[in-house]
Amino acid sequence: MGGARGVGWVAAGLLLGAGACYCIYRLTRRRRRGDRGLVLRPSQSAEDLTDGSYDDVLNAEQLQKLLYLLESTEDPIIIEKALITLGNNAAFSVNQAIIRELGGIPIVGNKINHSNQSIKEKALNALNNLSVNVENQIKIKIYINQVCEDVFSGPLNSAVQLAGLRLLTNMTVTNDHQHMLHSSITDLFQVLLTGNGNTKVQVLKLLLNLSENPAMTEGLLHAQVDASFLSLYDSHVAKEILLRVLTLFQNINNCLKIEGHLAVQPTFTEGSLFFLLYGEECAQKIRALVDHDDAEVKEKVVTIMPKI
After folding, report:
1. Range(s) for CATH 1.25.10.10 in the chain?
2. 208/210 Cα distance (integer angstroms)
3. Alpha helix positions (H), the chain
4. Topology, domain 182-307
5. Looking at CB atoms within 10 Å, which of 8, 213, 226, 255 has the fewest?
6. What is the dihedral of CA 165, 84, 136, 201, to 10 degrees?
């Protein structure tokens, strides 16, 4: 799918991802507590709102207290608790707008520079939930370069790296901000090839977003990628990874068709993704997958086969 995607679909789809885990947790707690539902009640202090036993959706006044606490305290324990509470509340669409209107995005965003890695992670998680709202993305985009730096320079497979990748994935669901990752594509492939299974899946989700946009096709194909990338097309690779690398190939092919094979054929250097995807070794690997045990993989390969 090439052009800009519908805002309504973006908000609905992303909300499922950003809030799903928290909502499951809430439903479980509510059942244990007699399914009394969501209740808005006043709090004695801002710090009360960070108590792990406080299980209610905050209103605008309470969110304002929490943001003031987050901005004014230097206590790392309180900062972390406040970020968790804000992040949980940002899973609800009404609070995504309220937090923005209260000036909360830069307050949260400033915490991604914190030296405490746990605080940095919680800030990224909160921004991730806030980024479900497309108006919030306009304010969050100023942090993309910093998030990329943390993802590529921080510890591999760390909680901070995964949180950063999730935020970048949310920020690239539409085409609006994808161009900001042009210079990071080669680094993304490096993380893909060196990371563990969870990291690989998250990087591929991000790359799939980019691969659906024809404006990003040339940048993807120019990326310098180690030849070990082709091992991801082996039959023993986990299904959730294999299906995504096959879809990456499919999306790029579709975009090339839309763009008329890039009209003016650019010069791709040896070692680029272009040489890997359109070389004979990749074609052989994809053909071999036609006998894969999994029906979804076989179906995907049958769809791709006429294009290789």
Report:
1. 57-181, 182-307
2. 5
3. 7-32, 60-72, 76-89, 93-101, 104-109, 117-130, 134-140, 144-153, 159-171, 185-194, 197-211, 217-222, 239-258, 273-277, 280-288, 295-304
4. Leucine-rich Repeat Variant (1.25.10)
5. 8
6. 20
